[in-house]
Amino acid sequence: MIDPYASQRAMRAMRRSAMQRGVIAVLDIGTYKIAALVLKIDPSDGTQDHPAIGRMAGQAGFRVIGAGTTRSRGVQFGEISAMSETENAIRTALQAAQKMAQTRVDHVMVSLSGGNVRSYGLAGEVDLENGTVAENDIARVMAAAETPDFGHGRDVLHAQPINFALDHRSGLSDPRGQIGNQLACDMHLVTVDTALIQNICNCLRRCDVELAGIVTSGYASGRAALVEDEQELGAACVDLGAGTSGVSIFIKKHMIYADTVRMGGAHVTTDISKGLQVDFETAERIKTIHGGTQATSMDDREMIEISGDSGDWEKDRRCVTRAELIGIMRPRIEEILEEVRARLDAAGFGHLPSQQVVLTGGASQVPGIDGLAARIFGQQVRLGRPVRVRGLPQAASGPAFGSAVGLSLLASHPQDEWWDFELPVENYPARSLRRAVKWFRDNW
User: What CATH number was assigned to the domain covering residues 118-191+421-443?
Assistant: First the structure.
């Protein structure tokens, strides 16, 4: 039987090869910007693959030696729409990062925000042959998980063991070596459109680099923006990007749900552009400098000069109040947050012991958005900045670079995935026609 995860194993092998060489790049392909970081790996500092399951990504073992960012071209809703433009933008960002690092990079890990992300919960159970959990038993229990029929043209992006139970003792992160009779495993599986992965592969090949791994931007942002306690007790990370908003839920230091809302900061900018009859660049500048979500009496008196370049002097020298600008921005931001709340409710987020919501991403920098989100979600909301990593330039340390920083953590300390184990191929189950139920509703 053909191994359906051969491409993922190949990418994992390339990542290990890059680790041995000591240099790897990470690339965040967004709708508004493309960011590249070059990482210098120190193999003696604990970055080599380790048999522990469910390990927390640490900061030790690498430092950023190069960074490059450029305006994104040919990307809409986190998906490639014009291959040649995207290729040129990726090449520009990578070259800038390599020039700063003064080294060439052959392997790249990518985070993506499009591809119609879908999340599934799987469960498997096997009897132990020798009464003690061995490496092969971990592989067998994963192979016993009933894979849902996720349809044609979809690829598995993540398949992670997130919880083990030994003779009904649940909550085990690594059961190997323990004594018991029956082993069960809960898994989280994420799928995306095959076409998006193929487009990214082709694009990077044309840029003369090899793909060493792909992760969803919501997963990467969550690893960077959530503190350890939040990842342990349960929290949602909302990555408010330009074209999409990634949603991810973490508990027990694992991502247990992922989704994407096809709206983001660029939609707010478009509304400003249409409402004030200015070009997109002017609207983006006005949003960045004067934007907000909560109008006060002061905002009725604060005038914003619209300095356009249409050639009509009176139109280019118009003034609007900040209250008018907020009146344009707030409905769209509310719409995005309402859609995010609907996804969290559908995922059973209210069943978790902790309902902390963390906002990150470039669009989370609008003043007052955390207060608005707290009212819409009915939960505790805070703004998240990515954790500090060694060598990261100050300009790349804001919320807009959460995915790139999280990708760096995952590159140096990846969590275990399905393809990291030698699964007994003959035990692959027939695909079930029913979608797996969200496992954590019953477990937490």
Answer: 3.30.1490.110
